[in-house]
Amino acid sequence: MRIDRVELRLVGMELKQPFTTSFGTLSRKEFILVTVFVDGLLGYGEVAALPAPLYSYETTGTAWLILEQFLVPLVLGREWSHPSELPAWWKHLRGHAMAKCGLEQAAWCAWAEAQGVPLAAALGGTRGRVEVGVSIGIQREVGDLLRAIEGYLARGYRRIKIKIKPGWDVGVVREVRRQFGGIPLMVDANSAYTLADAAHLEGLDDFGLMMIEQPLDEDDLVDHAALQRRLRTPICLDESITGPEAGRRALELGSCRIINIKVGRVGGPTAARALHDLARAQAVPVWCGGMLESGIGRAHNLALASLPGFTLPGDISASDRYWHRDLVDPPVTMASDGTIPVPNAPGLGFTVDGAYLESLTLKKAQLP
Ligand code: OSB
Ligand code: MG
Known about the structure:
The structure is a single chain. With 368 residues, the chain is of the alpha/beta class. 35% of the residues lie in helices and 21% in strands. The chain contains 13 helices and 13 strands. The strands form 3 sheets. It has a 7-stranded parallel β-sheet with strand order 5-6-7-8-9-10-11. It has a 4-stranded antiparallel β-sheet with strand order 3-2-1-13, sandwiched between helices. It has a two-stranded antiparallel sheet with strand order 4-12. A hairpin with a 2-residue loop joins strand 2 and strand 3. Helix 1 packs across helix 3 and helix 5 packs across helix 6. Bound molecules: 2-succinylbenzoate and magnesium ion. The site of 2-succinylbenzoate has 11 residues, from loops.
């Protein structure tokens, strides 16, 4: 197979409600969509990077530059037989996992289509449906949070994740437990704490949380290990797990007991699958994280989450949790039992609404 042409688009979509984490508020999603043209077929990938370097150092701007100047020139016109060959071509380029992922995803999508197999099957997925949860941002008042949780539980979401930060943590979790009892509940700090907060975080141990996600710094596996020794609540790492190697080190050090796998953060589907395999071999549960993706990134996440080691509900909510109108038609929908079916049509398994996509496109580049 050969990629003859790549199209990059900067796409802007308004979120239904602003999403607030310990690092800031997003009210609009701007992201890069990568389209590859392979032997007369199309493949789509979505770059997870946000407009500002708040979650990780990558941004839509850096990803555009790295794709245009380094990654796309490496792939144009070059022969391959399987998409898992591509990461070796850019292994010497440091970092920029999300930019790499967007291009690799597009190659997987085109390859699956060419083979006539669903993306999930191409990756080795075994589940027909995946269990999903919802990630709820920091609210103005606890009452707003309680109402939001009530609404998502009523729709059937299998797990509630609430974002926390200093000042919006133990007291809020207490209120949620008081109101909703033993629902599957977890918290995500996006690195808002330090080891000096360990005694305070021990207060979360009283609430039977499924896990606490990324309490400390991205680059600090050592302090996470120290914190995990003090907490009964399992630590789940997100930002820290930049690839399979980081996952191996974290498990060896005891920095976490659960891993959030985000395909963009780890550098693409091949790395995500390798990380899944490594965790599974050690019986460490993983789940699929999200970056407020459009239906295209969501389709890639669904395929990944169909792998057998994804045993916990993922941050793969239905399209209508984020968007008034999604890029794919029909949108991603969740059944009332809190599961989303994994598409079984060849390739992406969702139809991209070309005219709507065009209307959301802010910038376009054709390479070459
Ligand atoms: O830390 O998991 C995170 C969104 C943007 C950046 C980071 C995170 C998130 C989410 C939302 O939690 C997950 C989703 O629903 O896509
Ligand atoms: Mg997270």
